[in-house]
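Notes from hallway chat w/ T.B., transcribed later so I don't forget. T.B. wanted the structure written out for a chain they're using in a teaching module, and asked if we could keep both sequence and structure tokens in one place. Agreed to drop them here.
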Amino acid sequence: MVAAEWAEGVRAGRVDPVALTEKVLHGIEAADRVVGAFRKVRAQQALAEAQALATRSDLGELPLAGVPVAVKDVADIRGEYASWGSAAVPERPAAEDGEIVRRLRAAGAVIVGLTRVPELCIWPMTDSPEAITRNPWNPAYTAGGSSGGSAAAVAAGLVPIAHGTDGLGSIRLPSAMCGLVGIKPGADLLSESGWYGMSAHGSLATTVTDAALLLSVLANQPELAGLTEPGPLRVAVSTDLPLTHAPVPKALCDAVFHTADVLAAQGHSVERATPDYGVEATLGIAARWFGGPSEQADELDEQLLQPRTRAQVRFGRVLRKAGLIKPGTKERWLARANRFFEDYDILLTPALATLPPKAERWHTRSCPANALPSIRVAGFAGLWNLAGFPAMTVPAARHPNGLPIGIQLVTTPRGESRLLGLAAQLERLNPWPRLP
């Protein structure tokens, strides 16, 4: 069953939220030692929340009634501390729930745990001295990052939906690696502080219905849960990698072209076209990738950071001091992106620029050794954080090595419903296996 069906069962009284939570906790206990999705499992607290939920007078009206949800280890949960994957972050429990968790609780969700992230959410590979977060489809590969724990938890069937954040692809990259639907809304919908306004809260799920349902709760916009397949759209298709124009693996491109054929057969106008990415915008997101974590680290004990992170932070401070993180970079890229979308409603690209990195102890390696595979795999993602445009990944194919292959859909601000509707159409026309 998926989240929407579980919630319907709880609302109707057919499903006991306590028994559902117990079932999910047993699954986590049995399987998480393999995938390494959770930094903290809230077993006793989750059961208490489920018991309290069962007595709510408004249970029949809650969109996530009784649904066990995983939250990325950056969100404030009363009585827990968000570690951001770092020993440098003080272990001070939050006195109150943050806004994201408040909205989840108000919708009837049961918070079962905090999912693992790489230190300060910098990398698209999730590992730490305590665990390596692995891809449930092929444990030799990473589950991605920085929302890698959330992706692993959903892809392994431990929870039906999970919260994530996306600063330079941190929802879309792990979703694509793990065969999930992952959506980063526009900056005007669910942006969060830090990373120069590029990061946004979003959802990861195995179905479009569930991704839309969770996003509607996180954004406090119930209408986002109502999926409507769109009429004919103007779709631009591009496999041209920004900046380097390096070749993209054939299997990843083939998934894009197959998706384009599916859309064309459905009556959409589909043609090859690539935005004017330019050089400046790509360098601008690289500068922000270094600068954003360095601002967060200003409040931390640098000696407790991992060596790769210390190097990242120090270079970020150099860039900040030199004044190289300029608002004009975003403004000029945004103008070019808006011109491109005057002619198109959707941009279709690969979600990843390379195959996922292997699941290894990346935190023990140098900053350059981490940066190179990070930059290579994420080439299609980050520019849409800088622009603040909604973007999402949808499963589209399977690689011979067993890994899922995802495609990326991008649209203009306030176009989340358009993205979700088109993704629902693809789910119907080109369905994917939900779990390994």
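Follow-up for T.B.: The longest strand covers residues 391-398. Might be a good example for the class.
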